[in-house]
Design brief:
heterotrimer, A mainly alpha, B alpha+beta, C mainly alpha, A: mainly alpha, Four Helix Bundle (Hemerythrin (Met), subunit A), elongated, disordered N terminus, B: alpha+beta, Immunoglobulin-like, 2 domains, 4-stranded mixed sheet, 11 helices, 46% helix
Chain lengths: 193, 354, 639
């Protein structure tokens, strides 16, 4: 009986991740669950029939490219900060914000295109779902933009540098995450629209 | 009843106040005395554990016996007998587990209450034991699952071709029913065509709808398969007939169905229950608004011959609402007059009127 | 560890610095101290429990005594009492709905997880505070805001949400269907959205704290089962609550913006609605994807709490520590793939029904393991009946009673008859309602000394327990009979049906039992609030427990331990550890008799050679070496 107990000594050091970074990851998990549930609702609903099919606006390809570019500039900004290249940091970070805004504008325009094609928010759920997915993603992207803007203003007061990277790296991670999330949604929509 | 409740409340209040009083005194007296496990209350609680087991065990058995006829309601459908058997098998197995675990729980609590000289046995683990009580429930559950799966598959299988079709529609707060009439085909419907008279939104461009009729109560034949086609027109409802062991949600925009074989006619049940006024009742089992508890409809199970007779006597909805002839397309008017039975009743007058 | 510790030390220093300038508001209202936040959750939860309980008393009176005049409630309920002195039929549904919502979310999720996860995680893993005190504070205040909004919904003229706590559309989506689906439902949704935010903020924090801020030596196989339970609960919440958020979002869009996610082919109030192509079943899938894990979000913390309490008060290690963890993980995992057993009779594909039936019944296995392990823990114990212990035993009893009826309901063929009857009501009130509630009470009695530095009165606790325990069985045991007879839930009265004309006596009996049980809770309320101020002063370790929280001062300040955080060397269940063979003959009778029957987690193996098991002796060498290194680093950081 006694032999069954195995109180083995594990490494004494617990996980060495910054709690704030970990919190962000957990936050991302909950966002993933929101989109997982929305997309599975999409599939479940689609399987029930009475599903309006339509072409996705071409603009979505452009917005995807814009978002990919913004991820690239965000990464460049991170690298610049790491090397204390503060001028590059400011420009690349600024560029990221501008690209982010233009992504949102492109998304809005593509809604316009949808309306021109008579795909409305109120109507067949296939259209409503598209608006909801893009809308909820856009909302999260907005939060990412706000975070980036905060870090950008900090960078103008020289608070972001190789010794103080936490918020930059967190905002950049979040931005990459939103980028990947969009790619997932876009591919999902391409396959299931 | 009011008084009983009030009385009970007062008795309890007095009891509690008394107890509080007594306890406060006891606490006062006990001050300075031993606290914790060595106090007398530890033994008292241990004994209470045993008393609870004995008294409530007895109460459970006695009440289960006394109320047996009240809760073991008669079953009047073929699949119902099967699920009832499954129910009592499950009851047997879980009842056994229930008694064993509860007895051990309270008996151990009593038996191993604190003793100063005793020392608990250091017993943190035993793989063999744990494997046993993982495997045994797993095996028993597997048996139950397969039994249940079998039954479930049978119940939810396709209805036989010759099943009597009855449409049941839930609305706030009533059930409506529609029969396919002589052609055995329910007519199409469209919810946009619903109005005060055309409660089902019948589509009168479909010739199957001309002979559909809508009685005030549901009649079904004993011993023959019956298929309920179920829908709702406003919110969720649920078709529920306890004696048939039948339940299926009524969903707006998504028709559902349930088929079964009634095995006892209303007359049989009147005899069995000794209640001359017995009727099968259709109830709503899904919250649907403030009249949820009033959604009742009578179901009559006839001998097959009576059922056929009853069906023949029913007049089509269209013949009762001839003004709807105006919705029938011109090409089908002739058919409509014949199959709805207007022809034989009102003669050519109605025909002239449109 | 280094990063984590540095960070916490930093933050702690900052807070301590600010602390001097902070007054009452910062200390007790907008506090970032996990212990204060836990108490805030607890007291809000208790208030909600009183409201939720009172509602149940009202509708139980209606069910038990349908002819009774409710005129005396007019001062409280006003227009909801009809001119003839009866309860309004829709307000009946509103009360049922709010009772469910309040109890499931506000009491047994926020009140339970919010209280004990917050209070115990840092104390039992040896952390100064939560990973983010600020987020923790936000979590409470989101909950508070959510509470306020839900409370306000009682006082609007159209009444609170009334479509059942599961808020199935179309009923909940259409104000035409019932007046509670108007503003009341909007407030419900807003309140729940805030609640979800609160739960997520809390849950994220709990997970992060457990993973990152454990003290030296507190490996996962030395965590108390409470922490395991809170940790798993938080993970389940993190994965399931966002889904409710999506479900609610789509419902809001349907309600207010005219979309058709859940609505189709509806004719109501004399008009045909334009919505086409929606599916009410879709909502049910989304809802129960949260709803079922929610059951375990409610139950797991209670199971964790009782594991700890039963072990401590049996003076025995919990039997099958690893099996307990394993079964909790199993339950947590399975809880995500069984949701559709709530939907067997919705017209869902019968094949799906079969699969969900199979998966559902598998959950019975880890549950059975837990029950057997609890019972074996009691076996040959030396049981001390503290009030907490009584409530824990009560929990196990409820868990058995309610769990076994789950085997009926999980069987889709039986569920046809039992679905939405009082059998279901009896089932979940025992296994999730009462069991979780007892876990919560057990937790309060057990950790009250740590929370307030005083003891609750044990004798009042005993009285409270026996009244409540007996009362709950008197309420819910007879309910099974009513359920087997097929009485449907959420019925205002049964007088319309011949089939439901029996059991008037039993319904009255249940109602009386419910009133008595409710009244008995005032014993607790008195005991709780009285003891906060006037209770006997608590000793440092009143239950002779092994876990870390009892190594703090009696009234731990911000940061929990005045000096360095203690290190952990062993699992938390070394109760009544016997003398090993080597020492068996060497100790005198007296020495043996005076040996304490518990060895706290902070005691290294090197100090207990007489009880060490052979492989534990091997660990002594490791200990010394690691210790020295660790201590140096830690002291530097703390100062």
């Amino acid at each position: 009986m006694i032999k069954d107990i195995r109180i083995t000594e594990e490494p004494k050091k617990t996980m060495s991740m910054n709690p704030k970074r970990f919190l962000l990851w957990m936050f991302m998990v909950s966002i993933v669950m929101i989109f997982a549930s929305l997309t599975s609702a999409y599939i479940v609903r689609q399987a029930e029939g009475n599903w309006l099919t339509f072409e996705l606006p071409q603009l979505l390809w452009y917005s995807t490219v814009i978002l990919l570019l913004s991820s690239l500039t965000a990464q460049l900004a991170y690298r610049a900060a790491k090397q204390d290249n503060l001028a590059t940091l400011k420009t690349t970070l600024g560029l990221t914000v501008i690209l982010g805004v233009s992504f949102l504008i492109t998304q809005l325009y593509s809604w316009g295109v949808l309306i021109d094609n008579h795909v409305y928010f109120v109507g067949n759920p296939s259209g409503s779902f598209l608006y909801v997915l893009m809308g909820v993603h856009g909302f999260h992207l907005l939060s990412g933009l706000v975070y980036l803007l905060i870090v950008l203003t900090q960078s103008f007061t020289y608070k972001v540098h190789s010794k103080n990277l936490l918020h930059l790296s967190l905002s950049v991670s979040y931005w990459h995450f939103l980028d990947v999330l969009w790619i997932y949604l876009f591919v999902f929509l391409l396959l299931n629209h | 009843m009011n008084q009983i409740l009030l009385g009970a409340g007062i008795v309890l209040l007095v009891l509690i106040i008394g107890l509080l009083y007594k306890i406060s005194i006891m606490v006062g007296v006990a001050r300075g005395k031993k606290e914790g496990p060595e106090s007398r209350s530890n033994t008292v609680n241990g004994v209470f554990m045993l008393l609870f087991l004995v008294i409530f065990g007895a109460m459970g058995w006695i009440s289960a016996y006394l109320y047996f006829d009240d809760y073991n309601i008669p079953v009047a459908s073929a699949h119902g007998s099967v699920t009832d058997t499954l129910f009592w098998w499950t009851m047997g197995i879980t009842g056994f587990a229930f008694v064993v675990t509860q007895v051990l729980l309270f008996y151990f609590s009593f038996k191993y209450r604190y003793r100063k000289e005793a020392r608990a046995t250091y017993y943190p683990d035993n793989s063999k034991l744990e494997i046993i009580w993982t495997v045994v429930p797993a095996v028993v559950l597997t048996l139950l699952v397969f039994y249940g799966l079998n039954v479930w598959t049978d119940i939810t299988s396709q209805a036989p071709e010759d099943a009597e079709v009855v449409e049941i529609m839930g609305m706030q707060f009533a059930w409506k029913t529609r029969y396919p009439g002589a052609d055995n085909q329910l007519g199409n419907y469209d919810y946009r065509k619903i109005d005060a008279a055309n409660m089902f939104g019948m589509d009168l461009t479909d010739k199957n709808s001309f002979d559909d009729f809508m009685p005030r109560e549901i009649h079904i034949p004993k011993g023959k398969p019956v298929l309920f086609k179920i829908r709702a027109r406003d919110v969720l409802h649920s078709v529920y007939v306890p004696y048939f062991r039948l339940k299926m949600d009524a969903v707006p925009g998504m028709p559902t169905k349930f088929w079964f074989v009634p095995t006892k006619s209303t007359a049989d049940m009147r005899e069995e229950t000794g209640n001359p006024d017995f009727n099968y009742e259709l109830a709503c089992a899904e919250i649907c608004g403030n009249g949820h508890f009033t959604m009742r409809m009578t179901i009559v199970v006839d001998e097959p011959a009576d059922y056929e007779k009853w069906k023949k006597e029913q007049k089509s909805w269209l013949s009762k609402n001839p003004e709807y002839m105006s919705q029938v397309p011109a090409a089908l008017k002739e058919v409509a007059l014949i199959s709805s039975g207007i022809d034989t009743e009102a003669g050519k007058i109605t025909e002239a009127s449109f | 560890m280094e990063t984590a510790d540095l960070h916490i030390a930093e933050e702690h220093a900052n807070e301590a610095h600010e602390h001097h300038e902070q007054g009452f508001v910062a200390k007790y209202i907008f506090s970032q101290d996990h212990k204060i936040i836990a108490k805030q959750f607890l007291i809000t939860g208790i208030l909600w429990a009183v409201i939720g309980g009172l509602l149940s008393v009202f509708f139980r009176l209606q069910l038990g005594f349908p002819d009774m005049s409710m005129e005396w409630l007019r001062p409280l309920l006003g227009g909801w009492i009809t001119p003839t002195g009866q309860l309004d039929t829709e307000f009946y549904l509103a009360m049922v709905t709010m009772h469910g919502t309040i109890m499931v979310f506000f009491v047994l999720t926020a009140g339970l997880s919010g209280t004990f996860s917050n209070f115990l995680i840092p104390l039992q893993i040896g952390a100064r505070d939560m990973a983010s005190g600020f987020m923790n504070m936000l979590s409470y205040w989101f909950f508070f805001l959510s509470s306020v909004i839900m409370f306000i919904s009682f006082f609007i003229s159209t009444g609170p949400a009334s479509g059942g706590w599961v808020i199935y559309p179309p009923l909940s989506a259409l104000p035409q269907a019932m007046s509670g689906s108007g503003l009341g439902m909007t407030l419900w949704l807003v309140s729940m959205a805030l609640f979800i935010v609160s739960t997520l903020l809390g849950g994220i924090n709990y997970i992060t704290t457990v993973i990152n801020l454990r003290t030296d030596g507190m490996s996962f196989d030395k965590l108390p089962l409470t922490i395991w339970a809170f940790f798993l609960t938080a993970i389940i919440g993190l994965l399931s609550f966002p889904v409710l958020l999506s479900a609610a979002l789509l419902l809001i869009l349907d309600r207010s913006f005219g979309t058709s996610f859940y609505l189709s082919e509806i004719y109501i109030g004399g008009e045909a609605l334009p919505n086409l192509g929606g599916s009410p079943i879709l909502f049910q899938h989304l809802f129960w994807f949260l709803g079922h894990p929610e059951v375990y979000i409610v139950l797991l913390p209670s199971l964790g709490i009782t594991s700890e309490i039963i072990s401590t008060n049996s003076r025995k290690p919990i039997f099958g520590y690893k099996a307990m963890i394993g079964s909790m993980i199993g339950i947590g995992f399975l809880s995500f793939i069984v949701w559709a057993h709530h939907m067997f009779v919705t017209g869902m594909n019968p094949f799906l029904g079969s699969i969900f039936m199979l998966l559902t019944l598998i959950i019975a296995i880890p549950s059975a393991i837990k029950v057997f392990n609890y019972i074996t823990t009691l076996w040959k114990g030396n049981i001390v009946f503290t009030p907490a212990m009584l409530f824990s035993i009560g929990l196990v009893s409820f868990f058995i009673s309610g769990g076994l009826t789950g085997i009926f309901l999980g069987n889709s063929a039986l569920d046809i008859q039992l679905h939405d009857t009082y059998f279901v009501v009896a089932h979940f009130h025992l296994v999730m309602g009462s069991a979780a509630f007892f876990g919560m009470l057990a937790g309060v009695y057990h950790w009250f000394p740590k929370m307030f530095g005083r003891m609750m009165d044990a004798k009042l606790g005993y009285v409270h327990f026996w009244f409540t325990f007996i009362g709950i069985y008197l309420i819910f045991f007879p309910m099974h009979y009513i359920g087997i007879a097929g009485f449907p839930r959420r019925y205002y009265s049964f007088t319309n049906f011949d089939a439901f004309s029996t059991f008037t006596d039993l319904n009255a009996f249940i109602s009386i039992a419910a009133v008595l049980t409710f009244v008995a809770q005032f014993i607790f309320l008195f005991n709780f609030f009285y003891s906060i101020f006037r209770g006997r002063k608590a000793p440092a370790n009143p239950w002779n427990s092994n876990t870390l929280e009892w190594t703090t001062p009696i009234n731990p300040g911000h940061g929990n331990w005045p000096g360095e955080i203690p290190k952990v060397y062993r699992w938390p269940y070394d109760y009544s550890k016997p003398v090993n063979e080597e020492y068996a003959g060497k100790m005198s009778e007296e020495e043996l008799a005076n040996m304490p029957d518990f060895i706290p987690q902070t005691v290294p193996y090197s100090e207990t050679p007489e009880t060490n098991l052979p492989h534990e002796n091997d660990l002594i060498n490791l200990e010394v070496k690691d210790d020295e290194g660790a201590i140096v680093i830690d002291t530097k950081k703390e100062e």
